[in-house]
Amino acid sequence: MKILLLIPAPKKISPSQRFRVEQYIHLPEGQHLSFEAHPFFSPKTWSIFHVKGHYIEKLTGILAGFLRRWMTMFQLGQYDFVYVHKEAAPIGPPIFEWIISRICRKKMIYDFDDNIWTSLSSEANPGAALVKCNWKVSHICKYSHIVTVGNTFLADYAKQYNHDVRIIPTVINTEKYHNKIKDQSNNKLTIGWTGTYTNLHNLTIIEAVIAALQAKYHFNFLVIANKDPQLKKIAYAYKKWNIKTEIEDLMEMNIGVMPLAGSVVEMGKCGFKAIQYASLGIPAVVSPVGANKEVVTHNETGFWANNTEEWYAFLEQLILSESLRSEMGINGRNKMIASYSVEANKEKFFALFN
Length: 354
Hints:
Layout: E1 2-7, H1 15-22, E2 34-39, H2 43-49, H3 55-73, E3 81-85, H4 95-103, E4 107-112, H5 128-132, H6 136-143, E5 146-149, H7 152-158, E6 165-167, E7 190-194, H8 207-214, E8 220-225, E9 237-240, H9 246-250, E10 255-258, H10 264-267, H11 272-279, E11 284-286, H12 292-295, E12 302-304, H13 308-320, H14 322-339, H15 342-351
Parallel strand pairs: 1-2, 1-3, 3-4, 4-5, 5-6, 7-8, 7-10, 8-9, 10-11, 11-12
Helix pairs in contact: 2-3, 8-13, 11-14
């Protein structure tokens, strides 16, 4: 059985498609399935797409991506399923999805793990919201054989347009990749955050709290991202995200943080930062928004912080208690193995192609 994967980015780069799609396709359980990945963006275009400027190169790269997609439409006959992660093309109406479903009558699996139906523009591409056609998400749901999403908030949206909506959380490989446990007795204490540049603005929620704690306690604050956040109020270390050192860099943290605003966009987040922290035995303090409340068990694997006072109090508890960090870290690791690991979810993924 042949499955066509229409993904946005080149393989091994985008966290979303890495942990929702790519890590399943080489498992022994999927040997009867042949996956063929067709990214929209080339590596060169992806490397500049979230950088200011480069408008001619971006336009050229997008046009090349559309050309590749049109060529793929003439090859659909050889595939049994088409799996679309987020969208077949980053801008414009869902013309490719319509062709796949309505013209070629292919069974299409549609997957997303964010609120991608709400219009947003990034600093690097301020006019993107005008051409992204976010309204197409509901149409793609209607065209699809099955819709898969990362949490209940996204599922509630998709169920308005499709009768077969399945929740498959964004997961990690706890056996081969996220397979270490933080030793809380080692190194100078480090509180950390990891993510992409699009979420860096959430750090402003806790910047004053970190500054107040730094005035009282000695600890590092580490940011792992694809762009320096240039924080003004606190001392911090920045590490550029690198797939080769991803686990090693995360293991520097004793405590992970995931602050989120309570907007409709953040409600769609799937708690992946907290999943990564917990899988490595790192307790997390998170905003109780969206899937964070499902990923983190309050007072057991980490804490829910609703306001500035709670952020300060819970981080202070973890700073002062090595034993609490260790206990919560082990509890979190066990929960990730049971519910948020590849092993626990692989049957759900492969069942999509029955």
